[in-house]
Design a protein that fits this description.
By secondary structure, this protein is an alpha/beta fold. It has helices spanning 27-34, 38-52, 96-108, 125-139, 154-163, 176-179, 188-201, 217-228, 258-271, 288-296, 316-326, 331-334, and strands at 57-67, 113-118, 144-148, 167-169, 204-206, 209-211, 236-241, 276-279, 301-303, 329-330. It has 12 helices and 10 strands. Helix 3 runs parallel beside helix 4. The longest helix has 15 residues, at 38-52. The protein is globular, with a radius of gyration of 19 Å.
């Protein structure tokens, strides 16, 4: 590709403000970003990042599994699915005081967003009553709150909004074309419908996907284009690198080249300029150098702590050491 054809983004007058008419991205346009020379892609992503954010501040989020295992979905990557034999036990929902204690510990360690995840296809009325209490209690600690509970109806989104939930996470996972290869128990439109309900209720959207599941470049670009073309695009975009778990259908999937993961971060940053792009699952397998490239590509949020839902995460000490080495600091400190 002729690098002279690259059009760099001009500075915006109001950093962090979304344009009145967001750019529409075709899959071909996003795929062209992926194919840019690496240095040009990184430069363009860093330009966009600096126009909208402090480039050295990173948001620290902590994720707690409030209900683990026994999910009735058959997602091919997930160790919590009842369809897979992974050794993950089906456990009841945590008590509110346990969740609040975990949130307080996360806050004391520097996190400013607390995310609660439950292994459900969709929550029951009884489940929602417990979650609402958790959201209210964590919000009372002065932290941003996020939940991922599966599909929601209108009543449930309103309950969460009234409880003070800031963000609802519901990932698209992959492109529409590849989705059927990964999940059969719900379709793509189910996910889009839940996101629309979250928007209608007035909450922020957290939605991203997983790469390294065997998708090709066009399908990876299709995920980014799908997210970028949501109206509006998500305020928070977690990009996950597949964590392969024995017993899941994707356990033997070929590893994604780490630089292709960095390119995905950069494409997300360019196409969704004001979103927080979160470096999510898979960080435990990444070197400090690759994580540093992800930050350079526009990632400005990480999951922080020793555990994600059921898989490991870099220890807090390692994260603090890496941020210090890079001259970066938590968003809570910057604020």
């Amino acid at each position: 590709m002729n690098t002279q054809s690259i059009e760099f983004i001009r500075p915006v007058k109001q950093p962090g403000k979304r344009p009145a008419t967001p750019q529409r991205w075709s899959v071909e346009d996003v795929e062209a970003l992926f194919k840019l020379p690496f240095a040009d892609l990184m430069f363009r992503a860093q330009q966009v990042h600096r126009e909208n954010f402090d480039p050295n501040a990173v948001q620290l989020s902590t994720l707690l599994s409030i209900k683990t295992g026994g999910c009735s979905e058959d997602c091919g990557y997930c160790p919590q699915s009842a369809f897979h034999s992974t050794g993950v036990e089906n456990r009841k929902m945590l008590d509110v005081d346990v969740v609040v204690a975990a949130a307080l510990a996360a806050k004391q360690s520097g996190a400013d967003r607390f995310c609660m995840g439950a292994a459900w296809r969709e929550p029951s009325e009884e489940d929602m009553a417990g979650v609402v209490e958790m959201v209210k209690a964590v919000r009372g600690l002065g932290m941003e709150t996020c939940a991922t509970l599966g599909m929601l109806n209108d009543k449930q989104t309103e309950q969460l909004r009234d409880a003070g939930l800031d963000y609802y996470n519901h990932n698209l996972d992959t492109s529409p074309e590849f989705y059927g290869d990964i999940i059969s128990t719900r379709d793509y439109q189910d996910r889009l419908d839940t996101l629309e309900r979250v928007r209608k209720a007035g909450m922020h959207v957290c939605s991203g996907g997983i790469v390294g599941m065997g998708e090709n470049l066009t399908q990876r670009a299709g995920l980014v284009a799908q997210l970028a073309n949501l109206e509006p695009y998500p305020e928070s975009v977690p990009i996950n690198n597949l964590v392969k778990v024995e017993g899941t259908p994707l356990a033997q999937t070929e590893d994604l080249d780490p630089l292709d993961f960095v390119r995905t971060i950069a494409a997300a940053r360019i196409t969704m300029p004001t979103a927080r792009v979160r470096l999510s699952a898979g960080r435990q397998q990444m070197s400090d150098a690759i994580q540093a490239l992800c930050f350079l590509a526009g990632a400005n949020s990480i999951f922080y702590g020793e555990q994600l839902l059921t898989t490991g995460n870099p220890e807090a000490e390692r994260d603090r050491a890496l941020l210090e080495k890079l001259g970066m600091y938590p968003l809570a400190v910057q604020q």
